[in-house]
């Protein structure tokens, strides 16, 4: 092997920096659209799987089973090449197709997280609310969901990280994301170390930032969290101080 091929050429990355910046925004946009839509969809699907009405339970169950049991790559191709052109008569572009596929896939996984979170709350709390005359919908909204959300934060955060990395699959429909930028540079220079290492580092940075945000949210909604102001008041008001 020519030792020159082992030399890293950062100039080629700099020449295509605008492509990486555009790919970064596309990746973040796809992730945000897919995750936010997946949260809303997952909430309805999760509640549907908890319903005792069969006409509501079984469609939600089959939906979750389908999207959890088939590869995301196949779902992206199916939605982009078949579903959207059939409904609208033409393609709506890679972003709409990619965001729709990520949302539908994420919704299925979030549905299971939300269902499990709600079922983890003791049944006695719903029964107590109902015994006080509170409607089941209000009890779910004001009593069950706030408590369940605390337990959902870690798995929902993991789903966000997974969706961020899975968004790279949208490059198969020519999305101008980070992976697409790496493929363009690799094809232009016939070099693979520099572009794909750059893509990997950018994904690693995004994952690190998202992990920090998720850790803060998880800590903020934990049962042991005390705001800094109140923590100071509690510290001042303790009856017994530390002995000298």
TrEMBL record:
Pfam families: BPD_transp_1. It comes from the Bacteria. CDD domains: TM_PBP2. Residues 24-214 form the ABC transmembrane type-1 domain. It is found in: Cell membrane. PANTHER family: GLUTAMINE TRANSPORT SYSTEM PERMEASE PROTEIN GLNP, MEMBRANE COMPONENT OF AMINO ACID ABC TRANSPORTER. This is Amino acid ABC transporter permease.
């Amino acid at each position: 092997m020519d030792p020159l091929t082992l030399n890293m050429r950062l100039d080629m990355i700099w020449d295509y920096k605008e492509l990486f910046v555009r790919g970064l925004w596309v990746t973040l946009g796809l992730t945000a659209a897919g995750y936010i839509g997946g949260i809303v969809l997952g909430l309805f699907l999760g509640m549907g799987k908890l319903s005792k009405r069969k006409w509501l339970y079984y469609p939600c169950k089959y939906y979750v089973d389908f999207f959890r049991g088939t590869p995301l790559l196949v779902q992206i191709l199916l939605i982009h090449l078949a579903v959207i052109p059939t409904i609208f008569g033409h393609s709506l572009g890679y972003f709409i197709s990619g965001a729709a596929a990520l949302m539908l896939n994420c919704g299925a996984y979030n549905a299971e997280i939300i269902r499990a979170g709600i079922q983890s709350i003791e049944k006695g709390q719903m029964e107590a609310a109902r015994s006080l005359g509170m409607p089941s919908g209000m009890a779910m909204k004001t009593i069950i969901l706030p408590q369940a959300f605390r337990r959902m934060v870690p798995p929902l955060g993991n789903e966000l990280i997974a969706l961020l990395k899975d968004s790279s699959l949208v490059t198969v429909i020519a999305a101008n994301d980070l992976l697409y930028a790496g493929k363009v540079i690799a094809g232009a220079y016939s070099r693979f170390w520099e572009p794909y290492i750059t893509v990997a580092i950018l994904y690693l940075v995004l994952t690190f930032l998202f992990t920090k945000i998720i850790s803060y949210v998880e800590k903020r909604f934990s049962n042991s969290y005390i705001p800094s102001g109140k923590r100071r008041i509690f510290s001042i008001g303790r009856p017994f101080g530390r002995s000298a």
